[in-house]
Amino acid sequence: MEIGPIWRAMMRNKTGAILIALQIAVTMAIMVNAISIMQERGRMMARPTGIDEHNIFSISSVGFAEDFNERVTIEEDLAALRAMPGVVNAIQSNSVPLSGGGWSMGVQTEPGEGIDGPSVAVYMVDEHALDTLGLNLVRGENFSATDIGWRGLSDTDWPDKAIITRATAQALYPDDPDSALGSALYVSNDKPFTVIGIIEQMQAPWNGWEGVERVMLTPSHTLFKGTRYIIRTEPGMRDALMPQVEKLLAESNKSRIVRSMRTMDETRERSYRGDAAMIKILTFTIVLLIAITSLGIVGLASFSVNRRTKQIGTRRALGASKVAILRYFMTENFLISLVGVLIGAALTVGLNIVMIEAFSLTRIAWYLVPVAMLMLLAVGQAAVFGPAKRASSVPPAVATRTV
Amino acid sequence: MFSYYLKLGWLSIRRNPLLSALMVAAIAVGIGASMTIITVNYVMSGNPIPQKSDQLYYVQLDSWDPIDHDNEGFEPPDQMTYLDAMALMKAGKAYRQIASNRSSLVLEPQGEGERPFSVTSRNTWADFFPMFDLPFLHGSGWDDSADNNLDKVVVLSKEINERVFGGENSVGRSLRLNGMDFQVVGVVDKYLPVPRFYDVTTGAFDEPAEVYIPFNIGVEYEFSRNGNTSCWKAPDGDGFEAFLNSECVWIQFWAELRNDEEKQDYMAFLNAYTQQQKEMGRFPRPLNNRLSNVMEWMEIEEVVEDDAQVMLGLSLLFLVVCLLNTIGLLLAKFLGKSGDISLRRALGASRGSLFVQHMIESGMIGLAGGVLGIGLTWLGLRGIKMLFGEFVENLVGLDWVMILTAIGLAIVSALLAGLYPTWRACRIAPASQLKIQ
Questions:
Q1: Most exposed residue of A43, A121, A212, B119, measured as fewest CB within 10 angstroms of its CB?
Q2: Domain-by-domain residue ranges, chain A?
């Protein structure tokens, strides 16, 4: 191979080569770290909420008039909603998964102050919750209608039953999660309750919370002045039913306002909007970076071909084939890119370490580095192909011209 | 001479239009990407009240759990209990002080066929308005006496005044909130502090309040709290009264202290208060009260988001790639006219004048890249707004500082990029290139 002579020729004019190599190296560092961030966000967004997202929507009702009777309104609303054709079931809930606002409490296996226990997100619901949300009960049983109490805004009592997610059971009894069923737990230091059921999975209202799957359902209706209904429809009926539900609630009782009607899909979109935006921005950045780097390679290669037209002609006149000339420029670029991606691998890891320290990001997956190296080598070859092709078509006769 | 070099630069740029366009594009894209992100960071970390940000202090009292499971650093809680906020208000030891929280209220317009809607209210004290320099369109804030007499008074934002009263001077008129009649005492002109420093616990870049009412009214009528409430210990007993007397924190407290002496006095007062509470069995942790001025508080609450900083780092690296690109292209270009340069040297041009000539050429490319880059920055900010939705509205303004920064950054970048190629060009020996042909 001609690597030796090509390398020596490059060393005679190394600044240009070094610049390209550095450019490839920094491009690679940005690219791999950006892809790693995108992967992390993608994994986060792919986690299921555990509920039947596509057929669920929620709506808020806030009473304001002096004659507003919250308890009667809630009872009438739920009866009317559940009776609507197309509605599978409906509940009142203090919160909605991924909505960003909710209630969390510390739960412990022994009573008393100062005892450590995981915090869990609390959804205050009734016996229709499993059906409305589409939750999968894996152990124990559902609430019954007689379990459901009414909770005011400043009440501190807790109902004596709860249904928890598997992740909550796991956090309470790491060795034997199933033993959570039927066990006595304590909320708010010393208020005892019994776990009557375990559901497979459900998410808390906060997507960035480390305990996002630690959830507890408690059997209460709430009298918090504002309330939220979660409604599940037959597949495909959601969009048609939403305006009907809004109208029903607004017209059945004039002493309240109805607002924030939102599909679960929209709640999800809002919850991850920042992450989705980050993914788009980073994708755009990578595309732009590769474009800039390739254009730089094209520019410099074209320039060097122009400068070396006479030498190329001479080589051709001395018997070098077109392919040999093409190969010369391709190999030259390969060598530069190789140096670039090797420096790039080191820079990538360095940048990743800095980002982990400063922003607690995750480590890059090992395979991203070789994949990016191969990809950038390919980009370099593709970029240089045009100018190299032009170089190979320089006629041998150029050698004989003086200017 | 300068204009002659400008002309030479222009001719040289025109001689290799493709190469020149590539360089301008590279700088423009680098400037566009980094300036977009710099602008977002600049706005996020801006000082929302520069005229007195170092006289306004956020007050933190460490009344928290002696065994803290979530918060390893034993930081004091970022809000205050009702008991403490009332005690500090009553003591009134600062030049000005306010306790505040956020509520969501239902507003019923009195016009025919108008439907009630919900508004966010800031429940606070009379000092809020002079303390934070709120500009008034009509009327003013309420009197100190209104705080204690439980007067139902309200200050409206410009938007609500326009929506309910058609933008007229509504001072003295009545407004129905949560089923009660309030008297309008003032209308605030456009007030949009970015970040919304007075309450970052409910989102530093959220919209400011729509109406302002006395804090005590919100407590008296148990208006719903539309913010964060954290408790390390359950209230003793049921009911709102028990909640008010609990260790739950839900109030933000600010004090205006005009100088160091006032600050030290106030800190001494807070510590004495804490000691006194300790004797009554509260404040189980060691003494750890804090006074943070506006910018310190923004720092503690990490108002500039991690994502913005990650993007800032990446975008600056992006600019580095673009500059490496430009250096390579400039080098190729300058060495490509070795013939010209050695001819000029042979005809008597000094190295100094060649240096100036080529730096001017680099600067011209930088200027062109900067101007184009501002266009790209504008597009980039539009893109950010599209991606993140309306709540970043306040973050994506391009002001003169940013425009000048963009052009400055572009020219400096181009000059830096031009430095090495120019130095190489100046080293070409006179007439060395002339003998070949």
A1: A43
A2: 3-46+274-400, 65-254
